[in-house]
Amino acid sequence: MADADTDIATQESIARAERKATRRRWLGRLALVVIAATVIWLLWYVLLGRNHVSTDNAYVNAEIAQVTPRISATVVEVKVTDTQHVKKGDVLVLLDKSKTEIALAEAEAELAEARRKFRQTVSTTGALAAQVQSRSADIASASAQLEAAQADLEKARIDFERRERLAKSGAVSGEELTDARKSLASARAAVASARAGVAMAQANRSTAQGEFAATRALISGSTEETDPGVRAAQAKVDDARIDLANTVIRAPVDGVVSQRRVQIGQVVAAGRPVMTIVPIGKVYIDANFKERQLDRVRIGQPATVTADLYGSGITYHGKVAGIAGGTGASMSLIPAQNATGNWIKVVQRLPVRIELDPKELAEHPLRVGLSTEVDIDVSGD
């Protein structure tokens, strides 16, 4: 009985020893695995990991084009629907153009009237120039009449003085002396009248010169095309033509129609969006990196992007195009007021824009808002 107990104790001791040995072997193997994993991770971090920053807080974005009418009018036709691909310049919406056509006709009539007024002013200026010359001739004629009247006055004065001397000796009758006195008075009146005629002719020439100067100032240095009135009327015509052209709303960029909010018969207002166009060929990635990841990120560094839409099998290549000027929290509608005292430090994220290869985008198009993962190679900082 004692031998049996001894054998059992021996077997148990051997079993415990084997279990300890097995445990030591597995612990040793686990330690080797942990050491190997640690060495591999250190090698990866030293060679690769420390030169890359990545985030899955990244989304597709684009410079979305708002389509807005430039005039207020009634919609007569809508040529596109949501999700439709359009090219730059394609017709999207047609507006009623009856009012703009009337406005153009009125502007063209005003332009014709302005041209006619300019030509009339040119003709009037020529006529006034001739009138000034005519008034100068009138002054010369009046001056000649004045000289003749003055000569007659001098003759009448001499005749009167001679008869007056002879009348004292009785050689000239009283009647003849009276006639000489009347002739002298008439000659003086004629001189006064001639002087008034010269003054009137001079006044008429001054008036004609003023009218000529006024009309000439209206066209001085101008042609029919450069006349201010004509140019103002031409500007109204050009503006009316632009309004008429704006009755056709065209696509400003290549892309996909989204958020169409216009229907036939609707009266659209100038400046109010009727649809948007997403330029899917020019989308980019907004990657929101933690602030501690950005110390080595620089513009121009290469980046790789994978989209959840296609999975990890499709990789886009791009580069860092820019880093935002503020964090998302600071740019929010209601930014955090950390100065109030109720403050908890939260790691902030800063948007980084990644531009993608256009050829890769053409092969595998993306849409705004899709989730992506971004990895930036910062080894070249």
Helical segment tally?
5
General shape: rod-shaped
- Helix and strand content put the structural class at alpha+beta
In quaternary terms, these chains amount to single chain
Q: Give the ordered list of helices and strands.
A: HEEEEEHHHEEEEEEEEHE
Strand content: 15-25%
**Helical fraction:** 40-55%
Q: CATH H-level name of the largest domain... which superfamily? A: Helix Hairpins
Based on the coordinates given, report the CATH architecture of the largest domain: Orthogonal Bundle
Span between termini: 82 Å
What is the mean pLDDT? 81
Number of strands: 14
CATH class of the largest domain: Mainly Alpha
Keywords:
Elongation Factor Tu (Ef-tu), domain 3, 5 helices, 4-stranded antiparallel beta sheet, alpha+beta, 381 residues, 49% helix, 14 strands, rod-shaped, OB fold (Dihydrolipoamide Acetyltransferase, E2P)
